[in-house]
């Protein structure tokens, strides 16, 4: 049973990361103990293992991996050597990947867990081998040395507040369906908790599902089941925890002949979701700026690999099997709707106008002034 522990957290501002890395002292000194290894010097090759959980969601290969690799190169003057592995949603495969990287003597691991509990044993083996672990995006269980992510309960609250805004005075006129993420992903539980904190008492949740492996086809099946149970005329909105599942939900609604479509939430600002937002099919997504988190993960990894402490200032509690404080950087998020596409994903170069405004979406882009 996970126990409640402390996690050190800072909002990622201009000086937060410098404070995080410069502060003195640490609950666990990197590189100590019987598994301690020779740390790379300033000009030595720094061997980093980067492990991402899946490729169902476009963000990992399009944003997270290249951004982390770029920041590692910048921070080490090009001397970082990254060994990359994607577990493709298989927890057993990821455990093997971690063990392989330990055997191949990486200096540090950046780990985004498929299953936070299943990987705990591998995290312990990394500690025994003197390899620090930065838990990226998802807080893996076991003795991780640092963590960077988004405020995941706030993600759920942002989604739920947007859904309430879309529903307006219709919030009591029917029922909301909740299509949550995978039960093996600790972030999914935080998204769900944040959403419930806003929605409970304000809407009726007619059906709620946890979605195995975050797969859109599973979300599609959940939506079909909800429509059968509730009747399509009773569904006034859908909380979908990410954009891939929002796509599956919307396809099920269309196939069932639901028109107009109820507001549907999402997360990750995937290109297909942005296009659905432009077209009015998906109400919102959550824009999570990947650059700050990737930069924090790279900086934490470099510091820990070199034996420098990673500590910080402000503490919050999380539910984890880790029994010691974990220094963490949390990145703010933004509700993405038709009203702020230009100043978010377009301004930050996440997607270009040409990518969004293909011929199918050209007229909708024109109405929003996105092609000017």
Keywords:
disordered N terminus, Rossmann fold, 2 domains, 3-stranded parallel beta sheet, 8-stranded mixed beta sheet, 372 residues, alpha/beta, 13 helices, single chain
Topology readout:
Elements: E1 3-11, H1 16-22, E2 46-52, H2 59-75, E3 80-86, H3 91-103, E4 108-111, H4 120-128, E5 133-136, E6 146-150, H5 152-167, E7 175-180, H6 186-199, E8 204-210, H7 216-230, E9 235-240, H8 243-255, H9 271-279, E10 285-287, H10 290-305, E11 314-320, E12 326-331, E13 334-336, H11 342-346, H12 353-356, H13 362-368
Parallel strand pairs: 1-12, 2-3, 2-4, 4-5, 5-6, 6-12, 7-8, 7-9
Antiparallel strand pairs: 1-11, 10-13
How would you describe what is shown here?
There is one protein chain. This protein has 2 domains: 3-150 and 289-331, Response regulator (Rossmann fold), CATH 3.40.50.2300; 152-287 and 335-368, Rossmann fold. It is built from 13 helices and 13 strands. The protein has helices at residues 16-22, 59-75, 91-103, 120-128, 152-167, 186-199, 216-230, 243-255, 271-279, 290-305, 342-346, 353-356, 362-368, and strands spanning 3-11, 46-52, 80-86, 108-111, 133-136, 146-150, 175-180, 204-210, 235-240, 285-287, 314-320, 326-331, 334-336. The strands form 3 sheets. An 8-stranded mixed sheet has the order 3-2-4-5-6-12-1-11, sandwiched between helices. Strands 8-7-9 form a 3-stranded parallel sheet, sandwiched between helices. Helix 2 crosses helix 10, helix 3 packs parallel to helix 4 and helix 5 runs parallel beside helix 6. The radius of gyration is 21 Å and the shape is globular.
């Amino acid at each position: 049973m996970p126990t409640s522990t402390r996690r050190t957290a800072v909002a990622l501002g201009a000086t937060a990361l410098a404070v995080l890395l410069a502060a003195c002292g640490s609950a666990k000194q990197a590189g100590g103990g019987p598994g301690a290894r020779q740390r790379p010097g300033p000009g030595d090759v720094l061997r980093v293992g980067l492990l991402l959980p899946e490729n169902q969601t476009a963000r990992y290969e399009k944003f997270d991996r290249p951004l982390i690799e770029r920041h590692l190169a910048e921070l080490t003057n090009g001397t970082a050597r990254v060994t990359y592995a994607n577990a493709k949603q298989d927890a057993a495969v990821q455990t093997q990947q971690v063990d392989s990287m330990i055997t191949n003597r990486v200096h540090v691991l950046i780990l985004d867990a498929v299953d936070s509990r299943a990987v705990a044993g591998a995290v312990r083996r990394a500690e025994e081998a003197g390899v620090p672990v930065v838990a990226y995006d998802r807080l893996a269980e076991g003795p991780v040395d640092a963590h960077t992510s988004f405020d995941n309960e706030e993600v759920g609250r942002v989604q739920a507040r947007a859904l309430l805004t879309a529903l307006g005075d219709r919030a009591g006129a029917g029922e909301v369906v909740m299509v949550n993420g995978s039960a093996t992903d600790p972030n999914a539980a935080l998204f769900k908790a944040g959403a419930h904190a806003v929605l409970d008492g304000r809407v009726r949740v007619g059906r709620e599902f946890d979605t195995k492996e975050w797969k859109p086809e599973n979300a599609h099946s959940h939506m079909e089941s909800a429509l059968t149970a509730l009747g399509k005329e009773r569904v006034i909105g859908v909380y979908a925890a990410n954009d891939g599942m929002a796509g599956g939900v919307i396809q099920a609604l269309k196939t069932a002949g639901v028109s107009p479509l109820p507001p549907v939430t999402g997360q990750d600002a995937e290109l297909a979701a942005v296009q659905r937002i432009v077209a009015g099919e998906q109400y919102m997504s959550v824009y999570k700026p990947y650059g700050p988190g990737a930069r924090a993960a790279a900086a934490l990894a470099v510091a820990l690999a070199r034996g420098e402490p990673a500590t910080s200032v402000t503490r919050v509690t999380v539910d984890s099997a880790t029994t010691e404080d974990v220094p963490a950087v949390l990145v703010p998020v933004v509700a993405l709707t038709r009203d702020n596409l230009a100043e978010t994903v377009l301004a930050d170069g996440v997607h270009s106008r040409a990518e969004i405004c293909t011929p199918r979406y050209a007229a909708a882009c024109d109405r929003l002034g996105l092609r000017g």
